[in-house]
């Protein structure tokens, strides 16, 4: 059995909406785990990382704002469920390595990772940061009731990009390619006589086998000697939506290169399971005769009630749940302007511009009296909650009225420290081209409605840069794919890029307020045309959410006019389809929207809109 990407979701409660929900949460997964154990006595339970970061509760725990004593609540809950092993995810490092290792010190199961080492001497890595593997000895009962002792070898891995995303780790750790590290670990475990080998990979599924890939499930499943691969990281599900067109991927059987693979979504949306039938062969020990990966949802499939919440997990998490509720209800200000992300991917909106204004004000104050103060100041912000794969309820929505700490967490989801970049006009244009790659290419001559967004491109990569104005011509092809790899060197969607009415030239210089994750994680690799590489000229450990809190407190009540700093290049009224929350109907009169028609609700619960571009 597998969980992954829980992100601190301990209960079926949405703290940002301040209401219970009937899907997700470790409390519901726990019920499914206990049901599986009742049905099948031979079980193992693993987690594939990103369990300690990603919720309001986790943020408050990391900042010691909940007066928590004893084990971290996530680890306490996992201990109660008797996990057999886990692998760390990249986001588990977001609060620092010290916090991570302190949090897992009370785990009654091993954390495994074979491709992360402490910094060594020169090119030689130091000791492993985690145990590289563990051989579990378990007694299992066969169909005739006889007991057998099996040796199960387990290893874990996480993306090499972790040291880029959490750049503060780069001086402490050395990281290797996942596939080469796992290959060596599998060989070492096989030499000890393991009966089964299981890989816990905080990694997703993509086509290709390049060294250092972030999503390496495909080549990991092809490794000799591997019996099962458990994945995660991308929040996708397999078998299911994560399937890609590749001859080695069988979405019907859940096998990749003949190896069973499962990826169980995120936030406790599903329990992943692989049903293995083993047989003993003469001279060769045990082997997998049959494998059946499957996903068990915690939510509400058609005509089926959701899984109930496990009483033991509810009891363990009750103190931290009540402390979180008390914190998020603390008042911070007031807004007269509605703040939401219902239209953030296709129109200017107040929520993003509020974040941009707060960042700009913080940076302006920080660089006052320095040479940087003479540069034009811009501010980049991206929407974090845009529905899509995360569901119809995954939008920011702060109506006019009082603002609380919950409101700020809804507006800015992640604990990102502040950062500022010195960029040229050429870099700025490429940055915007990358953001504009969110959109599908529209055919202006087509009378049929066309999808507006590219499914693979996540909304949180759609940076809107305030302080300049520009158009996006989506009749042109996208320049980049969702990972920032160049698709078409001739593609140009950004038009009429201007600062203070002046056309932006390649040699103009700007300072851009952003966050450390974007500044370090986006990478600006030279092969994408970023010349020169942007320079980080200011960093602060202050979270952007705290900057937002200061701004709201100072400027409350918020009441401002949305600036129209970007728009689509008109395409003669071509029709384009996009989905959003039905709650957005109250805001369809927004003057920032292009001409729009409400086409009603979709089976998944979203409202479908038809835009005229």
From TrEMBL:
Domain 5'-Nucleotidase C-terminal span(s) in chain numbering: 396-521
Record PANTHER family: 2',3'-CYCLIC-NUCLEOTIDE 2'-PHOSPHODIESTERASE_3'-NUCLEOTIDASE (PTHR11575:SF6), 5'-NUCLEOTIDASE-RELATED (PTHR11575)
Cellular component terms (Gene Ontology): outer membrane-bounded periplasmic space
Alphabetical list of SUPFAM superfamilies matching this protein: 5'-nucleotidase (syn. UDP-sugar hydrolase), C-terminal domain (SSF55816), Metallo-dependent phosphatases (SSF56300)
Signal sequence region: none
Any GO MF annotation of the entry: nucleotide binding
Similarity field: Belongs to the 5'-nucleotidase family.
Keywords attached to this entry: Hydrolase, Nucleotide-binding, Signal
Keyword Nucleotide-binding attached: yes
Name under which the protein is recorded: Bifunctional 2',3'-cyclic-nucleotide 2'-phosphodiesterase/3'-nucleotidase
Record carries keyword Nucleotide-binding: yes
Regions crossing the membrane: none
GO biological process: nucleotide catabolic process
InterPro entries: 5'-Nucleotdase_C, 5'-Nucleotdase_C_sf, 5_nucleotidase/apyrase, Calcineurin-like_PHP, Metallo-depent_PP-like
Organism: Aquicoccus porphyridii
Domain of life: Bacteria
Residues covered by the Calcineurin-like phosphoesterase domain: 2-236
